[in-house]
């Protein structure tokens, strides 16, 4: 699946992204309580000029748990000590998230289990039932 993503590069213009900074809980030594290195990025998919209506619908469906009430996809990164590295990482994560959401998975073809698979499943059920039966106290 990821090989397919590399064929079509996806780019989000920085003008469509809004960044905010806060203090990070990650590494930073003495600066951890003084320097705002955690980067939060918000991208509104409804106002994006690079997405088609079809892509917007697909993203709203696949990323529904990550979209805020305002229609923004919001991600945070506070992994690194550097604000710049955190910004690059959060943008990379956003692009990967959107790329994977835009890839439509092929429809699953229904198949029947083979005879051997059915027999194996039933045998496992019999063994499990036998194990449970052997644990019961004897009737007098």
Task: Tell me about this structure.
With 140 residues, this protein is α+β, with helices and mostly antiparallel strands. It has one domain (2-102): Double Stranded RNA Binding Domain. It has four helices and three strands; from the N terminus they run αββαβαα. The chain has helices spanning 2-7, 53-62, 83-102, 115-135; strands spanning 17-22, 38-44, 72-77. Strands 1-2-3 form a three-stranded antiparallel beta sheet, covered by helices on one side. It is elongated and about 75 Å long. Mean pLDDT is 85; it is low at 1-7.
Order of strands across the widest beta sheet? 1-2-3
Mean pLDDT figure: 85
N-end to C-end Cα span: 62 Å
Task: Outline the biggest β-sheet.
Answer: 3 strands, antiparallel
Helix content: 40-55%
* CATH secondary-structure class: Alpha Beta
Briefly note the CATH topology name: Double Stranded RNA Binding Domain
Order of helices and strands: HEEHEHH
Kindly list the characteristics that best describe this protein:
alpha+beta; elongated; 3-stranded antiparallel β-sheet; 140 residues; 3 strands
Topology:
Elements: H1 2-7, E1 17-22, E2 38-44, H2 53-62, E3 72-77, H3 83-102, H4 115-135
Antiparallel strand pairs: 1-2, 2-3
Produce a short descriptive summary.
With 140 residues, the chain is an alpha+beta fold.
